DNA sequence: TGACATTAACTGCCTAGGCAGTAATATTCG
DNA sequence: CGAATATTACTGCCTAGGCAGTTAATGTCA
């Protein structure tokens, strides 16, 4: 297989045209939009992600969430603490494995969680306005390849 | 012009397959890679961006940098303070407009700044391994369209 | 000119992530 | 079994961004 020449060279590189710059700005724009949508509900974009993961049973403890988001458990402990203080999440020591603290939504957390998918869909579709199905799939596959390249 | 149907619906949405998730992870991967490369030089990825912007004369004061990165001047004041403490940056009140504080690299800052483009190019090319020129251009144009959609 | 608005830098207070270290519990393996 | 290892949650300390408010300097305009 013949390797394509690398896209960037030291001479041609300018930060404001780079893929890194664009990715960072798109990410910031998505987070800011979620923050705006969630502000009336008193929840940040970072908290949004945690609630959605717990609601969809993709994570049931701090370690799960940290793995899911590639952050560390220390940061996650503090995020969970904020959500507990807001009355959205409840902690309970697991009797089977006393190291872990199981997480579950409170009633008020469940009510809020039901609104989250609609917000995610609205923000994503806004940013993807005018994208064909093929472009949408292509974008995802290019991003996945970048992640795979990182190892 | 006929509108394409929106890519996401509330029923089909799952966070770990979403473009938002992918963009966030790619951005984290790029930043982590720059952090790893710069760690021996004692500079973070966030500081990397500031030094590069000053070195390439894209910004000469805190307000410029804040605009460039869509952050606020308060955050920028503190970033600059860290770089001054590291001896990489110097501040000097502008005599023409006494509100602004001009920024310039120290000699040690200049030496370090010369190494930055190579790091950026290395990290980006790693993540873009196997991309054709067409795919590279396509990725950038899709990301730009997402930004434009955000308004 | 003088009132008003704008801009630049800065500060305080909050959320948030990275890293190192700790204590308790669980698992693995000699 | 029992010692070494791994995992979970947590803490402290740092960097970093968002927002509101302050002060000084500048710009605008009646």
* Number of H- or I-type helical stretches of chain A: 7
Mean pLDDT figure of chain A: 93
* Quaternary form: homodimer
Instruction: Give me the side-by-side strand order of the main sheet of chain A.
Output: 1-2
Secondary-structure element string of chain A = HHHHEEHHH
Structure description:
The structure is a homodimer. In chain A, helix 1 packs antiparallel against helix 6 (about 115-125) and helix 3 packs across helix 4 (about 75-85). The first copy, chain A, is about 60% helix and about 5% strand. Chain A contains 7 helices and 2 strands. Chain A has a two-stranded antiparallel sheet with strand order 1-2. Chain A has helices spanning about 20-40, 45-55, 60-70, 75-85, 105-115, 115-125, 135-150, and strands at about 90-95, 100-105. The mean pLDDT of chain A is about 95. The first copy, chain A, has about 150 residues and is mainly alpha-helical. The longest helix of chain A is centred in the first third of the chain and has 20 residues, at about 20-40. At the A-B interface, helix 1, helix 2, helix 6 and helix 7 of A face helix 1, helix 2, helix 6 and helix 7 of B. The structure holds a DNA duplex (30 and 30 nucleotides).
Essential attributes:
homodimer; 151 residues; mainly alpha; two-stranded antiparallel ribbon; 7% strand; globular; DNA-binding
Protein topology:
The structure is a homodimer of 151-residue chains.
Chain A: H1 19-38, H2 45-55, H3 62-69, H4 73-85, E1 89-93, E2 101-105, H5 107-113, H6 116-127, H7 133-150
Antiparallel strand pairs in A: 1-2
Chain A binds a DNA duplex (30 and 30 nucleotides) through α4.
